[in-house]
Design brief:
Strand order of the largest sheet: 8-3-2-9
CATH topology: Metal Binding Protein, Guanine Nucleotide Exchange Factor, Chain A
CATH class: Mainly Beta
Low-confidence stretches: none
Largest sheet: 4 strands, mixed
Oligomer: single chain
Mean pLDDT: 92
Order of helices and strands: EEHEEEEEEE
């Protein structure tokens, strides 16, 4: 949102999905696109990214911009494929939501 963290995704992401678990919803990263390492370039702001490391048994780290608080997904992940918050994208990612996880945790106000 503030522009401190900037990245480019070359080509369409692999897939888009939404997780309805309370952790993803509260972290503001429910809908993500999954990108391959070689299609993602972090152009600026690596020093502005803060990463939340969860307590076991949870494993998914989530990052946010230290300047404005925008939830980013996992842009510093060392994995070959990783999630980026879909709400951070400026343009149409050319993929649509392909799956929903933890449907039983979807709040009634979310519809569906």
């Amino acid at each position: 949102m503030c522009g401190a963290v900037r990245f480019v995704i070359k080509g369409p992401p692999k897939v888009m999905g939404t997780c309805h678990c309370s952790r993803c919803r509260k972290l503001g990263t429910s809908t993500t696109v999954f990108v391959e390492r070689d299609q993602f370039t972090l152009e600026a702001g690596q020093d502005r990214i803060e990463t939340v490391v969860p307590d076991a048994p949870f494993t998914y780290r989530r990052s946010f911009c230290r300047c404005c608080g925008t939830s980013l997904g996992e842009p510093l992940s060392p994995d070959a494929s990783f999630p980026i918050n879909a709400q951070c994208l400026d343009d149409d990612p050319a993929v649509r939501n392909a799956f929903h996880e933890h449907e039983v945790d979807r709040p009634v106000w979310a519809g569906g």
